[in-house]
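Handout for the seminar on molecular recognition.
Each group receives one record of this type.
Step one: identify the two inputs.
Step two: read the structure output and locate the region that could contact magnesium ion.
Step three: write two sentences on what you found, then compare them with the reference statements printed after the record.
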Amino acid sequence: MKMSQLLAPTLREDPKEAEVVSHKLLLRAGYIRKLAAGIYTYLPLGFKVLQKVSQVIREEMNRSGAQEVLMPALLPSELWQETGRWNVYGKELFRIQDRHERDFCLGPTHEEAITELVRRSINSYKQLPINLYQIQTKFRDEIRPRFGLMRGREFIMKDAYSFHTSKKDLDKEYKNMYETYCRIFERLGLKYRVVQADSGAIGGGYSQEFMVLADSGEEEIFYCEKCDYAASRESAGVGGEKIVEGIGKGGDEKGKDKVKEVNTPGQKTIEEVTAFLKESPEKMIKTLVYETENGPVIALVRGDHALNEAKLKKMLGVEDLKLAADKVIEGVTKAPVGFAGPVGLKGVKIVADTAIPLIEQGITGANKEDYHLTNVVYGRDYQAELLGDLRFALSSDACPKCGQAKYSVQRGIEVGHIFKLGTKYSEKMKCVYLDEGNKEKTMIMGCYGIGVGRTAQAAIEQNHDEDGIIWPMPLAPYQVAIIPVNVGIKEQLEAAEKIYQDGLQIGLDVLLDDRDFRVGVKLKDIDLIGIPIKIIVGKALKDGQVEIKLRKTGEINLVEIGKVGEWLRQNVCS
Ligand code: ATP
Ligand code: MG
């Protein structure tokens, strides 16, 4: 490609709309342009990078035995009704109607669509297992689209779905995908960590996330220095707290004071009550009322802890969970909002975090306007039906696997996610096959995603300096840029053209900066764009040499003009 023809509008200034460096650089170096919030055009350079990422993914997925397909982005609501996700998915789903007022959505993920395909085209165990994947545009009406391609509303994802006759067979493919993902991210030159994850709206059983390490990452990775445990903030377990025995038998009352009702006029929040009573939030029994498909539930966590809704969902085995409306809270507690507590509450399920029974004498709402209770003792004054880990872990919490006293925390960007779905979709959609004995069985599923644009951008977070992007070779839109210092000098331009042709011949992506600009300007642009190798055709040409400069290290090699092809073969093709 000749730079004079390339549509790569570079910007001198940092665009105001961009918060993270990778987003700034994608805009400044002319890779992407915003059309609307979370919706981007990929310019020639941007599209080329996406193709490079896709190609590595495609090669490794094919190597793993998966087959590529392409499903529609426009999906009929009936399929989503079958799995119940038409209602559960919420506002992130882009919903539309056709001219006959039939409901459709723009696919945010394709479990329903693929299950429909497989249930219609596979009926025997002989056709299983199978793993189908696609690289396709997804649509999610993200509440906060931001950071460019990191969290878009329209973005490209590689999604794969596997179908099996047994859990063991799924385990095997899951491991195969795990290894495939490791190969993909290694080939792309990324530093990453695999963490145990929450499976979110896609649901099902076990899942792991591939996190590219970066300080600007949205995710927090909790990992143990002593063992190999690593988890996302959403799923990091809390170790070291024993579940208190004797639920329903009454706690240890010895030496404990009696419950006291105290007047707390207008004091509703944890902060207000603890300030008013001059107590610490660790003594507060935070009482949260949730609505679920099985009715209201009360969840208790310590005043200084944050309840983790994913863990609560899992404990309750519900799909639908939201903080209750004021009316529901008032119905359950018979008091205005702000004074809820577990003592004396009847006819509602109460669940609690493992830290709750350890509060020796707690403070909580009295279910009465302007009153709280102090000296509240677990087992004596109230009880939970279920006890378990319900809160977000803190770095001060212990590792749940080996008991190491505290966590280490690192930030990361989630670029890939692998799930063992089990029969969550196949059961609801009756995706069945006939086994050896001609008996109908439900297929067992796995699913595996990679954000293509997010991966490309995450690579920039890890590879840049004050001058611009420093692409790892496999991601670079062009591996080599050839820069004649002065295009007005015929010999220089001719020599550059010759190297350009040689590079193309070898099969490299080469850029010839044939613009009639000062060399300083050209070098600045090429560095901003992040081309790994610059071949500068200038003064040394009179000695039959060119300068080859590496973007990453700044290292300069003087190479004889006749040997440039060989140098490129050795240093770029391998
Ligand atoms: P997140 O927690 O970041 O919202 P997710 O759990 O919703 O991600 P998945 O449904 O597992 O994501 O999607 C698979 C992959 O697609 C993710 O690992 C990520 O790389 C990518 N991805 C998800 N949402 C977006 C988005 N809005 N923009 C760009 N890439 C995305
Ligand atoms: Mg999401």
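Reference statements: Residues 99 and 213 are 46 Å apart (CA to CA). Residues 478-573 form a domain with the Rossmann fold fold (CATH 3.40.50.800).
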